Amino acid sequence: MKDKVEEILENVQKEGRSWLLENEAEEIFEIYGIQVPGREVATSEKEAARIASTLGYPVALKILSPQVLHKSDVGGVKLGIQNEEELKKAYKEMVEKVGEKIPSFELRGILIQKMAPPGGKEVIIGGIKDPTFGPVVMFGLGGIWVEVFKDVTFRVAPVEEKEARRMIEEIKGKDILFGVRGEESGDIEALVSAISKISHLIADFPQIKEIDANPVFLYSKNLLCVDARIVLGE
Amino acid sequence: MNIHKISEELNTFFYPRGIAVIGASSNPKKVGYGVVKGLKEGGMYSRPGLKGFSGNIYPVNPSHPQILGLKCYPSVKDIPGIVDLAVICVPAKVVPVVMKECVEKGVKSVIIISAGFSEAGEEGKRLQEEFLKIAREGGIRIIGPNCLGILYPPNNLNASFGLTLPYSGKVAFISQSGALVDSVIDWALKEKYGFSAVISYGNKADLDVPHFLAWACEDEYTHAICIYLEGVNDGRLLLEVSKEVTPKKPVIALKAGKSSAGSRAVSSHTGSLSGSYNVYLGAFRQAGIIPANSLTHMFNLGKALSSLPPLKGNRIAIVTNGGGCGVLCTDALEEMGMEVPAPQEEMIKRLDATGLMHPAWSRNNPFDIVGDATPERYRVALEEVMKSPLFDGVIVIQTLQTMTDTVKDAEIVVEMFKKYKKPIVTSFMGGELTQEGVKILEENGIPNFNDVYDAATVMHALYIYGKWREKENEG
Fold it and tell me: What is the ipTM of this complex?
């Protein structure tokens, strides 16, 4: 498991990059057992259409380029593509738009990702290297909650399931996850396991500096991490 | 880290067979004078019962024959007896030389009060590395530099330039700030707040919070540990040691510096949310360290957690002679997630049957036994709540009415506490006219708080700590 991750990281470092493309980061997540949506990289409109019909619509398109870390800032993300016609249009527009913003950008391809089903509760899981404590793991409510209330909690990594469960029970908005007004509870066991896995990922590799799984959609059964970011460095 | 081993090693600081003061002075304006005076007499400020260190004290200064009546030596190497501990207050640039002499003398522990090291630029950093290297090779452990030193009332040891020894108590106070310590000691004298030890550790060139925690964990006089810190050298060591300490003794920490990571370059969401305070807070929770919000909060928790057993559950009975204060206390408890459950019918009937109750008493929790409550009324109400398995802890509130007998009330609270061993926190509200009662309570290990909110806060901490200890000891 670790060898495979090591190999991906080595390739990234060889290219002189300090962060992973989303498809690389998601591959690592998958190796560590963190669930990510079905996806494949397309290098042409035609290929994109083939991938999308295999995955099933709706899909998301995300630009893959070593020059584009913040994809949505330059028009490099399109969500909820419903059919082939929309897909081809979106593909063309995306390449053009990013090209306008960053003329020198190198296109590695476009990630075609199956859209996550609606109805998930949004959470964020992350990892960083803290100057005092070394690898630490973070968990909190995602989306607007994390922006406004910063309802997050930290632990020194790695953490096992008992400690991960304490993190979930500790945040102020935990009732949202456990379900309010008769709403179904999110899959807490899946969440516990994902927090623990990310904590191991940040602790296992000294070359990883930051990890974001944001957002992660928590369903009544299972969860799905729809955006993965891994940054390297000391 | 082996807690027991570290603790044994640090014991030479607290139980030295002989102490040298290097840089001792006969000038009362100098630190080197204050340290000798503190060791010999307990402090610069005397008070009845204050005693100095009973072992050998050796001032070191080449230009004096004696200081404060003690024979003075030109160098630590000239001292005839055993020196376990040296307190250094010479200028920074001389410290490496002095350290070498300490190694040759066979000194085990050194407190460096002098400033001008890592906190003071490149040259200072270099000097710190230099003396540290000498000490490591010579097997010497160091507190400081740039610190106040240590005060250990159980051994009448004031190895610091702190004003005076505080009263002996059950709380160990470990402080990164030295200036804070002086004022805390002055405050503690007025409040009769006792300390088992006060440690000011400054630049933490060698020994840091984890080491002092390990020592305090094994110190027989320490029942709770309060820490003021700005940062530690090794966060993972703090976590590792705390996890061993907190199931045995409560640890409360006040962390200064809440601003975010600031200059740290981050490109992830997680990074932008990870201000160092949040990470410390997470580590505290992981280690079972109770975070404090203020100095008052920290010492309140220290007082309660050092003298009372932790709560087994979160259900509290309130016995009060003032309705409003009972409501305030209930509000505070419930806000913190504690419960104030209603009493059983039989309990109410039994209290009614005593004939002691006012017709208008609340017949509910809070047990409002009305403003004209006599000590006997407190007794019957307390008997009921103390023996009932319905309540895990009891808060007794006393407001001062014309017929209130604060001394007798206090005696009854003490009697009930001894009889049933259930945690009691009191709020005998007032000041001048209630102090006699408060004195009786606190002398018997019942923490009193003037504000019912503070009483609720410590009850909550007793519950949180109890829950932690239960979980950790389960494994």
Answer: 0.91
Cross-chain Cβ contact A132/B232 below 8 Å: yes
Better-scored residue on pLDDT, A86 or B474? A86
What pTM, to 2 d.p., does this model score? 0.93
Which residue of B233, B236, B264, B269 is the best one to mutate when testing the A interface, meaning the one whose CB has the most A CBs within 10 A? B269
Task: Work out the number of other CB atoms within 10 angstroms of the CB of residue B429.
Answer: 20
Give the model confidence (pLDDT) of A180-193 as tens digits.
888 899 999 999 99
From chain A residues 172-191, the ones with a CB under 8 A of any chain B CB are none
A150 contacts chain B (CB < 8 A): yes
Q: Assign domain B3-304 to its CATH architecture.
A: 3-Layer(aba) Sandwich (3.40)
Q: Is the pLDDT reported for residue B259 higher than 70?
A: no
At B271-286, the pLDDT tens digits run: 666 668 899 999 999 9
Question: What is the per-residue pLDDT across B345-362, written as a single tens digit (0 to 9) for each?
Answer: 999 999 999 999 999 999
Domain A38-115 fold is: Dna Ligase; domain 1 (3.30.1490)
* Bond preceding residue B80 cis, omega within 30 of 0: no
Query: What are the sequence ranges of the domains in chain A?
Result: 38-115, 121-232
Q: What is the pLDDT of residue B262?
A: 45
CA-based nearest residue to A222, from A10, A25, A35 = A35
Contact A146 B269 (CB under 8 A): yes
